[in-house]
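Hi there,

I know you've been waiting on this one. I reran it after we fixed the sequence typo, so this is the corrected version. Both the input and the resulting structure follow.
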Amino acid sequence: MPLEHPIFDALLAAAKRQGCGHLVLVDPDRVLPERAEAIARECAAAGADAILFGSSTPFARDPAPVLRALRARYDGPIVLFPGSAAQVRLDIDAVLFLSLLSGRDARFLVEEQVAAAPRLLAAGIETIATAYLLVGEDEGGSVARVTGTKPLPVAPGSIVAAHAQAAACLGFSLVYLEAGSGASAPVPASIVRDVAASAPVPLVVGGGIRRPEQAAALAAAGARFIVTGTAHEDGAGVTPFTDAIHQPAAAL
């Protein structure tokens, strides 16, 4: 039987209704439980669509207290954003089942996925097949360091678009354009616009988004979901970003 995706279907429907969805990334190695609880409370008040939970690097400490803090203040979906199969846990609602399609290392294309799949299927955890594309000039970011992957260049934009088109042909549910955690700048809106116009698959855009107006520009360019994280770790409120991202579809 085909796998069912109730959480992903609900997120897509909400994003279509609102114009774009807002996903807030919480890295349990970068925030203490007290700060995670505050972020979760802000997500609930703002109407953020989901919390992403995870890190591109191996966990340095037990992530469970941070996850419990999020659960205590946010009753929306919490979706695992794993850096490896070792980060798979069964107390989450769904998982972004990532394949680093911008790289050529078999470990991150399929080997980590082979290691994770049996546990996820046995537990009935919803998986969201996601083509992960590292994009931009930041070769020193955490994803690039961990995977040994160089980001796809922003020029010519056809390179990123072709990778997204390959993801669509391979049947991925999402394409995630990632500038990198803590990147100095987000993926350019022009790249998002080109990919949205050429690849029939919903786009997630994250990394380097520090201001609500940047998030709004990426939503207007065709992103279906915007991910913010570092800004909230540094104290920026969630509501201004959610308000900027949730644009009526007719306005996009």
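Quick highlight: Strands lie at 21-26, 50-53, 78-80, 94-100, 126-134, 174-178, 203-206, 225-228.

Best,
R. S.
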